[in-house]
From TrEMBL:
A Pfam cross-reference name: Usp
Top-level division of the source organism's lineage: Archaea
Family label: Belongs to the universal stress protein A family.
InterPro entries from the UniProt entry: Rossmann-like_a/b/a_fold, Universal_stress_UspA, UspA
Residues annotated as domain UspA: 1-139
Protein name: Universal stress protein UspA
Length: 139
């Protein structure tokens, strides 16, 4: 039985389903929601904003706040408290690097961005293939 569960989340419906699944199937586990910000893109949006920020960590927390607040609300509705964490960089790499500290990773099958939907599960597939711990992919 998993005692520490990592649930990577973005602002997608699939990520919320993953959190709900983790809460339901691992009621006694310590659940941590991880949000990854600042992924470089062709438009350089978040990555540029982070690079130019005077207080890098505060800016990363600002970008992550809506996702983490939604996760807290989902957990509170189930009567559960969760831990939260923010990472910066490429989502798959950041999730894999964090996974070593957990017994299980539970993530949605694909994220909310258009590129994630077009590549259906690119991050999920990379995490599934390279994670040092078991991975549950939720649809």
């Amino acid at each position: 039985m998993a005692k520490r569960v990592l649930v990577p989340m973005d602002d997608s419906e699939m990520a919320t389903h993953a959190l709900e699944f983790a809460i339901e199937t691992h009621p006694d586990a310590k659940i941590t929601v991880l949000t990854v910000v600042g992924e470089p893109s062709s438009m350089m949006g978040q990555a540029t904003g982070l690079a130019l920020a005077v207080d890098f960590e505060s800016k990363a927390d600002e970008y992550a706040a809506p996702v983490l607040e939604s996760a807290r609300e989902t957990a509170a509705a189930a009567g559960v408290e969760i831990q939260t964490d923010v990472a910066v960089g490429h989502p798959a790499r950041a999730i894999i690097n964090h996974a070593e500290e957990y017994d299980l990773v539970v993530l949605g099958s694909h994220g909310g961005s258009l590129s994630d939907r077009l590549l259906v599960g690119n991050v999920a597939e990379k995490v599934f293939r390279r994670s040092p711990v078991p991975v549950t992919v939720v649809r």
